[in-house]
Amino acid sequence: MRKLVLLGGGYGGMKIMQKLLPDQLPEDVHITLIDKVPYHSLKTEFYALAAGTLPDQHVRVTFPEHERLTIVYGEITQMNIVEKLVSVNGQGTIPFDDLVIGLGCEDKYHSVPGANEYTYGIQSIEASRRTYSALNNLPGYSKVAIVGAGLSGVELASELHESRPDLDIRIYDRGKNILSAFPEKLSTFVTNWFQEHNIQVINESNITKVEEGILYNHDDPIEVDVIVWTAGIQPNKLVRELEVEKDAQGRVLLTPYHNLPANEHVYVVGDCASLPFAPSAQLAEAQAEQIVQVLLSRWKQEELPEKMPEMKLKGVLGSLGRKQGFGLVADHTLTGRVPRLLKSGILWLYKFHNG
Fold first, then answer.
1. Which first-to-last residue range defines the signal peptide (predicted)?
2. Same domain for 9 and 27?
């Protein structure tokens, strides 16, 4: 029996299982999924879990069931791609013939002293739960600092205002404008929304140090009650330690077929893969679909296409509380009620098809 091992049940891992099960998986192939938690977590909604506007169960989806799918729950401690073994804490070693690494990302602290020790995050469901506890146990009118004004920081700030309008929320961003990767019209809309809701944006900030209850911006100390870090991501620690070729961001370089250049049996999907797009759930799913095509062809000993089709992403949608949103879809900027409804609809469809 050929052994396909999936490391991580994120968006990429779920899409691979969805495509192979129940009818596309060859009878001589068995899948083993290894994950720390017994469910798929909707990472795109962790900001709402942390803010307290979505309950825990609403950001979880059960894994599929199949007679040739085994799910191992535990923490992965080592990947030996030469010996084709994965070590899991308390579970021993698990052999593989084909491996798909989808271990996701972690916060990147940019060597800021104290950032790791004294800030909260939303890059995992465990971290989001801790952040929820810290934010929602605050006394009234406490000060909250959010470092980073990308998509995650913006959504967290707006959702936290919805949950706790009493809080003094401030966003610290290095750029001149928030959401600098988006069109100016969109950035202006979000900036105006923050002004209307008394969320202060500190542009051109430079966080130089973090201590317990103190954030240093340009070395000036600012007392705050909770600091949430949303200022960048990096691949999972196990991937960072893997001795393979990587790009400047530490993501793994791959062939057009999404496998390691020196090993056609090891694939990387999602945030750890070096791709010409920003990491996203949509990208992980698109990549996973192509990995399934490659796996099926190789298992059948068929020739691979000379060129894989270009992965086309539909766009980005973000929320500003329950009623407003923003987005960039097919190069069109969307603001207001429509993008919020679109995002809610896409989330519902995802849970309906996977739950």
1. none
2. yes
Contact status, residue 42 vs residue 60, Cβ threshold 8 Å? yes
Q: Which pLDDT value is given to residue 284?
A: 97
Strand partners, 252: 246, 273
**Which residue type does 206 have?**
N
In a domain, 64, yes or no: no
CB atoms < 10 A from the CB of 159, how many? 23
**Does 148 reside within a domain?**
yes
Contact (Cβ atoms closer than 8 angstroms) between residue 248 and residue 238? no
| CA gyration radius, the chain | 21
In the predicted structure, residue 90 carries a pLDDT above the cut 90: no
Q: CB of 123 within 8 A of CB of 28?
A: no
Question: What is the span of the domain harbouring residue 18?
Answer: 2-36+74-106+234-299
Residues 100 and 179: their CA atoms lie apart, in Å, by: 32
Which residues lie closer than 8 Å to 268 by C-beta, 6 or more apart?
A: 100, 101, 102, 239, 252, 254, 258, 259, 260
Mean pLDDT over each residue of the chain, to the nearest integer: 96
Whether residue 288 is found in the same domain as residue 218: no
CATH of the domain at 169: 3.50.50.60
Is the pTM of the predicted complex or chain greater than 0.85?
Answer: yes
Q: From CA 73, how far away is CA 221, in angstroms rounded?
A: 43
- Is the bond preceding 183 in cis, omega lying within 30 degrees of 0? no
* Confidence bin at 355 (pLDDT 50/70/90): low
How far apart are the C-alpha atoms of 189 and 224, rounded to whole Å? 27
